Every structure is written in C-alpha cells, then in structure tokens.
Amino acid sequence: MTIQLKDSQLLVVGAGIMGAGIAQVAAQAGHVVLLFDAREGAAADAKTRIDKGLEALVAKGRLTDDAAQTLLSRIEPIAALELATSVKIVIEAIVEKLDFKRGLFQELEALVSPQCVLATNTSSISVTAIANGLERPGRLVGMHFFNPVPLMKLVEVVSGLHTDPTVADAVFDLAKAWGKTPVHTKSTPGFIVNRIARPFYAETLALLLERAAEPPALDACVKAAGFRMGPCELMDLIGHDTNFAVTNSVYEANFFDKRYQPSLVQREMVEGGLLGRKSGRGFYRYGGDAAGATLPVALHDAPDVARSVVVHGHGAIADALEQAASKALEPQGWGPARESDSVWTGLAIDGARLVLTDGRSASEMAAELGTPDLAVFDRPLAPPWPAGHALAYALAAQASTSWRSQAPAWLTALGFAPQPLADAPGLVVARTVAMLINEAADVVLQGVCSPEGADAAMKLGVNYPQGPFEWLAGWGAREVVALLDALDAHYRGERYRASPWLRHAARLN
User: What is the spatial distance between Cα 416 and Cα 389, in angstroms, rounded to a whole number?
Assistant: First the structure.
C-alpha cells in the first residue's frame, strides 16, 4: 500500500523558527498549511515573519510578488488543534522534550484520522520512544529538517522500531517533492549528521585541552582543508551551551561510550557564560573591533641550499609534493629525486625528513628512524593546494635548532602557510577526518544509513567539502586504520578504536 501526501492539507505544530520554515516550504510546494502554536498569537506572528522574509526575496528579485502572496495565502494560523482534524499529515516542531512530544502525539491521535501520518522534527530524541504509547505507533516517523529550512536541502527521514516502511517512504517522497534531498536513517542517538559530526568538534577540543595550539591556528588548518568554518568558529556560532548539550545527549544515549565524551574545555566555557556569538565571547570576542579569528602571519626566510632533496611515496600528495619541490628548486637549476616505492610520504632533505603524518608523533617517529631532524606535517586534503594553504606541522623533540627553522622554511617553499603545533599525534586535519570516517563506518555497520546516505547527509546537512566515504576512497582504508591505531596506542583509551567495518575494508584493500 502506498500513501499519497502530495498536495494534501497538512498541519505544522510549533511556530518557532523551524516550524515557520517548514510551513513556508510546504506552502511553496502547493500545500494548504494549518499552523498551530500553544502560545496565543505565536502562529500569527510566525506568518508575519514569513511575510517579511518573502518581501525581502521579492525586493532582491528572487521571487515575484504574486508568487509570494500566493504562498502566504496558503498558510492559515489556527487557534485550536480541533480545527485540523482533516489533515493527512502533521509535522511537529515543538520543544525538544520527550514528554511534551509524546503527549502532543497522543492528543493528536484522538483528533486526526487513523490514516494521518505523524511526523516529528526532533533532532536528537528517539522516534521509537516518542511513538511509545500511541495506539498506532507505525504511523509516526522522524522528519528532521535543518536550519534554515527554506535553504537547507537535507531531510533525515528517521524510522523507529515501530515505523511502518510505507510511512517512511511516503515522507521520503514528500520531502523530495518539496525540492529537498531526503536520506533514510534508523532512530539512533544523533541520527546521521549529529552523530557523525561529533569528532569535528571533539578533536579540536582535545587539542585545545592538550594546549597543542590556539583556536585561530586550528581553525585555519581545518578551513584550508575545505571546510567552510573552523570548529572553534562553528561552536561559537552554534552556541557552546547548545553544542555541549547535544554532545552530552549523544554521550549519555550511547551508554557513556568514551568516543563521545564531552570536553572539559567546553564545560568550563559554558559554566563561565562564554557561549560564543550570542554572549559576545566564546573562543573569540565579538562586537566592535574584536570580531572573529585573527591568525598571525608568520614570515619565513627561504630554506638553506640543500645538497639532496628526495620526494618519497606514491599517490596524489606525493605527486603534488614533487611538483612543488621542483618549482622551489627551479631557481637553483635542479630538481628533486623521487622514491615512489617508499613506505612513507614526504621529503628527505639532506639528513632531515619532512613526513606526512601517519598518526605517530614526530618524536616517536624520529626515535624509531634514528633521524632527530624530523618534522611531521598534516594531511592536505585537496592537492594541488592553493598558495598559502594553512598546514599544521610538529617538530620532534630531538630536532636541532637549525631544523626548527628549516622545517617551516621548506613548508613555505612548498606553498604552505605552516602552523606550528605541539607534537600531538595525527595533528589536526588527519585525525579529525579519520575520526569522521570512522564514525561513519560504524553508522553503516549498524545499519543506520548507507555510505551514499552518509555522504549526502554530511555534505548537505553541515556543508562538508566531501562525504566521509568520499574521503575514504581518496585516502585508503589501510592508511586510515593505521592512523587510528597509532592514536589508540598513544592515548590508550576507547576513543580511537577503529570500526570493525573499517578494519574489514582495510583487509579487503
């Protein structure tokens, strides 16, 4: 049996930012939308806000006045749920509290027809738990939109244990008809996006706790890898209270799995009222002349003339390093040699080494190789990289005074803007992306979604430059597992354990 929801009358409960956005998108798609909020006058106020937003679009020439008025005419604020008994679907967008949501759906069940679909816009609460106690729990499904709803394409279609597959498919098709990109997911803590995204914040917070670097340097390195915002900037924008609450929710829902453990750094900020943009201060200060991140520009002299430069390794990064080294050495009239069969990627410069991180610290690697003058550099995700690409590096504790100045000089000559870090294993981008891949692998292992669904969700829901499985394809499962194992050996905890799915992919590789 199929359920047809296209062009049907629908009810949106909750007239806040999310509810108003959902009402606007549904009306734009041709639905008559009844809008209800328990607070008197809130639904009418929401329609007024929608009207002002549409006026701005008309002024910019992105919408005609007739289309705006037609859209607005389809939204009807109502004062009581009893006025919506004939709708075919209800979308709830009220406060994120289980008891409130469960109570609302139990009330609605007594008013709407047995065939009416019930959808919740919850971002973190179990759909299975919300459905518990309903007479027809199979008709409840998650329909998680992202803010701002009119602009964000992703909709997570969340199935609880009770959800009828035909209901989930009907909501999937409805979201598609609205111009969205829906992705099926099981009801697990954080669903897809909020779960996979935890390491994006967690790894930077861990580096801050270790005093490996300051927020501007960490943000610069992550943005150079293609992310629109650095983790510190994004946490300031979201609000540390909100971000910390979501992290705690995922942590508790996963029975306090150490992989999701909240950060002492962020807890201290929340307790101190340093919530980010909304409080005027988070990792950065806001307002006046103190807005956002400022990265000091470090100037490095050209590296000393070398007797021998050899590029080691194979693949896109090694190829790009060879091109960059050839350009850097061109004024001297010679170029680098190449050792494509090496087990490591980087440059051997006389008796020193610049090595692409494999998850080990520079000091550990230097001791194992018997090469004191060694520096590790972070993983550049998109070779060939643009000039001035911010890149983290760390020096071995054994390194000479000369190499401490020569390592960043060589990275600068190769086209990077080197950012010094304490000797933290995995640096910034490599460990963050490896952990995003690892979390996505567990999501697929547990049947939450498909690899394609995970990639679409992360690119559309949080604007990642690539999806985790796209990164994996360009990196290689064996290398990712090796980096995670190195982190696991260094920190000796549960946090960096590699997903069984990923280990299996590494064996097949």
Answer: 5
